[in-house]
Amino acid sequence: MEPHPPQAPALPPVEDLLARLDRQRLPRHIAVIMDGNGRWAEQRSLPRLAGHEAGAESVRAVIEACGELHIEALTLYTFSAENWARPAHEVSGLMRLIDRTLRRELPELHQKGVRIRAIGCLGELPDFVQQTLADARGLTADNPGLHLNLAINYGGRVEIVDAARALAAAVAAGQMRQDDISEQTFAARLYDPEMPDPDLLIRTAGEMRVSNYLLWQIAYAEIVVVPTLWPDFRRPHLLQCLVEYQGRTRTFGRVLDL
Known about the structure:
alpha/beta, 41% helix, single chain, Undecaprenyl pyrophosphate synthetase, disordered N terminus, 8 helices
């Protein structure tokens, strides 16, 4: 007999988790590294793309939960710049999955007031994915609800280099002085300067690294790593992460009086 996949640790009931949350201290912006799709599939002797497809259900659950909690922004690490190194069939399958899932979910997301944005080197994506992203951004641009940011073909170091290049070009063109460069003028050249920095970074599947994700923006984010593989991540897991987040003392580098 093949071994069964390991069982995720049991969580308290949703009602208990909700009762422990202070609705006045929820994060404005949650960023998620959705890790473990491949391992989830391998544990079940399925192709890796089956894990990515299963992970789409977790995306839906987390978006719905963030909307219900009135979280301002959610950024999902959808496809990293390094993911192009994966086998060609997996990459093409991921591109089709991103396109298909977004087109399928777009009407409901729009109806719920979700505003969709994308960050990354979007011009390097297949034309059909670029078009679907453009359609989603255009349709939802004025929506007042959750700001859903999809990090696609994204790398934190590339984003920083692109911002530095933009500043260098502005100085060379005489539009600003070198002495005008500051954290604020740098941040204004990032892919989405309107996006608040993440308060909470969640990584699934137990890996203790940030994987070139929002390197500038997560400078003071609280990081919660959970062992659950992404396809198994649901609303209770998000609530548990929020409970842990609210148990932290955020100092932003300041010394607290004891």
